[in-house]
Write a structure and sequence with these properties.
It is a single chain. This protein is α+β, with helices and mostly antiparallel strands. It folds into two domains: 79 residues, Orthogonal Bundle (Helix Hairpins), CATH 1.10.287; 142 residues, 2-Layer Sandwich (Heat Shock Protein 90). The chain is 50% helix and 20% strand. The chain is built from six helices and seven strands; from the N terminus they run ααβαββαββααββ. The strands form two sheets. The protein has a five-stranded mixed sheet. Strands 1-3 form a two-stranded antiparallel ribbon. α1 runs antiparallel to α2 and α2 packs across α3.
């Protein structure tokens, strides 16, 4: 008998890659289509605002239109950036800015699930060399996994995103980006499996089992690692640990 496990895994990975490429192309197309009418909406509202006396109700409504339109433009731009992530080389990266870009993309999904999301971002983090768009992919995976872990929780649902600077025993500095939830947690016997390709505890329609595998590959390519702390019934914390450039 011939073991075809590896070949089957490779075929599934190729299919998944093709799906992701198609989704990225579709997202870019939708973003381009939305960009032009949104520019018109913002421009028209700004012109009307110039002809409206400040303080009137109409002025406040027009300001709301402009502000919401600008927020939509930012989301569209982030979507375009995310869909073109492979085109971007390594560059000086501000991890807090990457966190904000991710939140602008998926905040609505989190809020729609009645989840409170909070941020504790260290303001003095140094920039480091990275592909920021790939790190966005990892962070999105962490947050969506946290959302799924809160599906069956009846208490108040919370996700906290934290950034900080740590120093290793060898003096190397590391930027740590953590996503903590108060969801169902991970059983101890499954902790060693979660980075295995195609391992997933989700329904087939919600998970491919590749998210954490791809995320670990991205982080390791940056010289870092992913750590996991979890208590069944209480929640989990996933952390990207990324080395800061030595000068």
């Amino acid at each position: 008998m011939k073991d075809v496990t590896e070949r089957v895994k490779m075929e599934v990975q190729l299919v998944q890659s093709a799906k992701l490429a198609a989704i990225g192309e579709m997202a870019a197309g939708v973003a381009h289509e939305l960009n032009n009418p949104m520019t018109v909406i913002i421009g028209t509202a700004q012109l009307m605002l110039r002809e409206t006396e400040e303080g009137k109700a109409e002025s406040e409504l027009l300001n709301d239109i402009v502000n919401c339109g600008l927020r939509c433009k930012k989301i569209i731009q982030n979507l375009l950036t995310f869909s073109r992530q492979d085109e971007y080389p390594l560059a000086p990266t501000d991890i807090n800015e990457e966190v904000q870009r991710v939140l602008s993309l998926i905040q609505y999904q989190i809020n729609r699930n009645n989840i409170e999301i909070t941020q504790d971002l260290c303001p003095d983090l140094p920039k480091f060399t990275a592909n920021g768009h790939q790190l966005q992919q990892v962070l999105i995976n962490f947050i969506l996994n946290a959302r799924d872990a809160l599906d069956t929780v009846e208490r108040e649902k919370k996700i906290e995103i934290q950034t900080r600077l740590d120093t290793g025993s060898d003096g190397q500095k590391y930027i740590v980006v953590s996503v903590k939830d108060n969801g169902i947690g991970i059983p101890p016997e499954n902790l060693s499996k979660i980075f295995n390709p195609f391992y997933t505890s989700k329904e087939a329609s919600r998970g491919t089992g590749l998210g954490l595998t791809v995320s670990l590959g991205i982080v390791e390519a940056h010289g870092g690692t992913i750590t996991v702390d979890s208590v069944p019934g209480e929640g989990s914390t996933f952390s990207m640990v990324l080395p800061v450039d030595n000068n």
